[in-house]
Amino acid sequence: MDHNNIPSFTEGKIYKRGDIHDKFGGSRQSGISASRQAPAIFIFTGESGKQYGYEDSWDAAGQVFTYTGEGTEGDMTMTGGNAAIHDHVADGRALHLFEAVPQSGMAHLPKGESRKGYCRYVAEMQCAGFIVSKGLDKKQTLLRDLIQFQLVRVGAVQELEEKASSAGAGTDEATQAPQTSPKGSLADLRARAKAASTSPTKKSNDARRTLYERSQDVVRYALARASGVCEGCGGAAPFARKDGTPYLEVHHVDRVSDGGLDLPQKVAAICPTCHRMIHHGADGSELNDQLRIRIAALEAKYD
Fold first, then answer.
1. 3-state secondary structure of 20
2. Which one, of 207, 12, 246, 184, lies nearest residue 128 by Cα?
């Protein structure tokens, strides 16, 4: 798998599904398609689920998506694509959600060109947990177990992280944010960060908050590991927060954007200059590659 081959999609843009698989691999028929060429899983939603006794849906805020796993007959099990979603953070795979575009939505295509196989990119998602519910099978006669995942927009988690980051340590009364200043030994913080990558087995009343709180365990660890020194350039943090802690920003080395939950070996605490250079500089990709190697080597010493 090429960890430099990071898929990037534009929210709301329509893609031909075959083009996605031509570039990144993965099953062309399954609703859950794990790539062997890139650290990504592509999941597809649409009206077809109704024939199998379920329907995917958004919460009222449009931030948490209930996605029913794969398996058309009998009880669904935590294997195959379902396991891929459940373990996507622990496996270092980004989760990309697409929704099928009906043929009527592609009427603008030239006459004679197939209108099948198109999908609209929704967002990068993360699994906050899952529940097992009951639903009828495709014959609408027998009840069976359905695995339903709670998926949260990475951007929704990032909004909470940015609010907490701007507030610094302590509790942000507006968001109930936990402290971002590290507490406990580095080994303890690392253990908590690794444990956070495992999806819980129950539905959360606030999946966005649950995922945010888990991601903060990784943030705390990354900041503690850096100990006030940029893991990119090696310079001291440029200034202190209002609470006295050194200001560094947490960057995800294997994702196009930052925010949300990740593995300890996939995040780095870096200064604002390095962060902007990676995302916007001419040599950003090279700098990120160097940072990825540096963090992986550092984490290997702790294993």
1. helix
2. 207
